[in-house]
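Blinded run. Sample ID left blank on purpose so nobody reads anything into the name before looking at the predicted structure. Input follows.
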Amino acid sequence: MRNTDRRSFLKIAGISIGAGALYRVAPLLGAGREGAGLSRALREANGEPLRPFSFVQLSDTHVGFEGPPDPLGTRAFERAVETINALPEPPELILFTGDLTHDTEDRREHAARLKRFREIAGKLSVQAIHCVPGEHDAALDGGALFRESLGPTSYSFDHRGVHFVGLDNVSRGKPEIGKEQLAWLERDLSRFGPSAPIVVFTHRPLFDLKPEWEWFTDDGDAVMNLLARFENVTVLYGHIHRADHRRIGRADHHAARSLVFAFPDPESGAEKKPLPFRKERPFANLGIRRIAAPGAPGALSIDDVELSAAEFSGTAGIQQLLKGGSFA
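Blinded prediction complete.
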């Protein structure tokens, strides 16, 4: 098998819709016997043929958060659900990358916030919803209430030839994956060859983005070492409340926008202070991000367009901005 076939069989493109990011996954298999061989091998490895599909990443809904710097409450989350349900190409999956709720020491109130999260998320018209916790969901009780309400905090599954891995880097009282989860991850990945497409989703970044702002995972390097032998790795995370993309080694790391206040650019921001709320443009920090992958993985072109409620109205505005996109 030629390296060009193995390296180019997966195209992943993301569109941030102020509701996280919409990703489209398309196989770029080589033609002829080699491409057919790779397709067969992937099907044998994870049970499903590799076929195009789309999914959405949502993050940091913080249900229960009220007051400055963002008085919107759940309005942005509810707007995101309406937006996704109105997309002309419905996504098959939703991945939530943590901080679904805002933390509270009152267990009954926390349970009520999780219930409210499930009520809003349950309106999404998708095949499946998958969640991992953020520190606001799980740090106070080690993830106990999250597991009671939503299931395991780490797990994996296959979808249309892509292997998805949800990791928990918040429930241990410090930002780490931990030895037990690392051992499980090593076993989980062992059945795949290097060309298998892997999507990891977690809350905190798995690299040192800005440690002084707590934007890191202690043993993130150990995770990436386990993933180093794979040629197609995409890591999706939240926590930083802003869109961000880094290509590190052979892996692409994408952060989604939040559904509450945004944080400053880590490259230029002097302090981790939420950006101020703007009454005249309540969704000013939410927007459209088009990412196209016209060639090899990593060669992404990015087009950011801010979604302003004053200029574009609801789903009609989003569809207007998406119109004329370059995606096949």
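Unblinding after everyone has recorded impressions. Residues 1-8, 286-314, 316-328 have pLDDT under 50 and may be disordered.
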